[in-house]
Amino acid sequence: MQNEIKRALISVTDKKGIIEFAEELAKFGVEILSTGGTAEQLRKSGLNVTDVSDYTGFPEMMDGRLKTLHPKIHGGLLALRDNEEHMNAAKEHGIDLIDMAVINLYKFEDTVAKEGCTLEDAVENIDIGGPTMLRAAAKNYRFVTVVTDPEDYPKILKEMDETGGKISEATNYNLSVKTFQLTARYDAAISNYLGKTSPVGEKKEFPDTFTIQFSRAQDLRYGENPHQKAAFYREKDTSLPAIANAGQLQGKELSYNNIMDSDAAWNMVSDFDLPTVVVMKHSNPCGAATSDGGILEAYKKAMETDPLSAFGGIVAFNKNVDKGTAEEIVKTFLEVIIAPGFDQDAMEILNTKKNMRVLEIPLSTEKQSAGYDFRRVAGGLLIQDRDTEITDIKDAQVVTKRAPSEEEYRALDFAWRVVKHVKSNAIVYAAKDQLVGVGAGQMSRVDSVKIASMKANLPTKGTVLASDAFFPFRDGVDMAAEAGVTAIVQPGGSMRDEESIKAADEHGIAMIFTGTRHFKH
Prior knowledge:
Cytidine Deaminase, domain 2, six-stranded mixed β-sheet, alpha/beta, 19 helices
């Protein structure tokens, strides 16, 4: 079934492209109803526009709060064209049918994101008439075309060109689904904001109920294992420098596990300013290095950490990949390469590995992923702030007789940034610019110390050690001393801190406490 568009209601906050769209509608003989600023802008462009208030015979009032909530509007949107009773009621009450609703909403989300936004500001930017009209039009999709997104204007006009001014029911249905997704997200944003705010200025960290919306980006071949079905969804903000918004330049489709590991690698490499490379395997780093000498040197050092585990891994760069680095990359089988950019001659080399996935994520100093972390459990959801804490290592408390040297401080800073991204219990050995050994995900901390030493492909003598949480006993410090560690960074806070400090002093190890734990389960 196709519906001819004879009358359109236009009321938009985002006026991008609206004049051009309305001009094209007018060429099909479409009568235009409009409100407020939209009507004024359309009229200035030379279009013939009927004000909603003139059509309803009811003026806008209460600072614009009341303008479209009228039976002549909602009857025109909701009337079933194939229902004789509906048609008779419309005729009796002078209700003209509205075939298209072009509406987008007050910018509530943008308003509450502004610094200093008050509750009054937020409330005044809750759209009432807009969502009500959208829901009415979307409910009656068999007969009404509802348009919420300026990006849809061209395809609607194309279909009208091809059909002589008509829109198909299939198109209307798809636009209806998109509309209900929009109003659901809009109501969720209002609910989440008001749920942690109060008229007396009280603030809650988390709302009483929490609602969020993600859009499906792609179906995946399977989940963590082949017997599990999976899909990948992304948040609304596509400008965040994140895996969800990466541009894939080449290679096979990303798998569930590729996405998990790529996200872990990108989050870690984003914590560094110097040219840095991270090699990730099963969400734990098996290589990492920084270099004053450039990204190629950092890559070579990162691969030295654990070449065996790096095979089939994910590699993230925080600087552009050049030709020399690309020549090194293709010497090893790697699943995914991630960087802010790739030189053209580097891409020519990487293209020789057709199956290798190459992702581009431009870095942004203005916008970083923040908000909440989510973890689903049976019957519930865990929500927490993202761990974006970066400790200035020079501010950490020196608790031993000996303070770290400048070179040790640099190594401790590197190690502390790395250990934050290792699964708990987490221990890393590191030099000033290179990861040496990793102990991840063990049930006891001393085992992590032992495994990090066992896994080390490079000498541990002269390295520093970072622990994501405190040492419950001195045995971890004693074992680190046996491996040749000269300095340790840890949060502190154990009942037996004095024992660990004493052990460090006995071995001549410098130890600092950050006061910040970085558990990652």
